[in-house]
Write a structure and sequence with these properties.
It is a single chain. This protein is 44% helix and 10% strand. By secondary structure, it is mainly alpha-helical. The protein has one domain. Helix 1 runs antiparallel to helix 2. The longest helix has 30 residues. It starts with 24 loop residues before the first strand and ends in a 9-residue tail after the last helix.
Length: 116
């Protein structure tokens, strides 16, 4: 019939469970933490403005997770998983830079001698 439209199929592709391979998944609300002002203030007191940045990187913005209805595994969607890995790598790099700055300032302090 010319007046009827065909039904649209769902444009959202169901995610595949990494454990069992099932596509019977459901999005659920995650238990992610947002930025903590207390952590930012404590970080600022301990290491200066860099502490606020570290607290921001430590915040966990995972608001959506996926649960497999077949096996019960809860996992992150691929995009959030990539963002989480990137945040962790940046966090480690910032810690290494902070350690390098502290070591160089200790070695360049007046009266500092190299062991050996």
């Amino acid at each position: 019939m010319p007046g009827k439209r065909p039904k649209k199929s769902s444009t959202r592709k169901r995610l595949k469970c990494p454990k069992c391979g099932s596509r019977k998944t459901r999005r659920i609300k995650g238990d992610g933490k947002s930025y903590s002002t207390g952590c930012g203030a404590l970080g600022c007191l301990m290491v200066g403005p860099l502490g606020v940045l570290l607290a921001l990187l430590g915040a966990d913005p995972e608001r959506i997770k996926v649960k497999c209805m077949s096996c019960g595994k809860v996992f992150l969607p691929p995009q959030q998983r990539r963002q989480k890995i990137l945040r962790e790598v940046l966090f480690i790099l910032l810690i290494l830079i902070l350690i390098a700055i502290m070591i160089s300032s200790l070695l360049s302090a007046p009266g500092a001698t190299m062991p050996g």
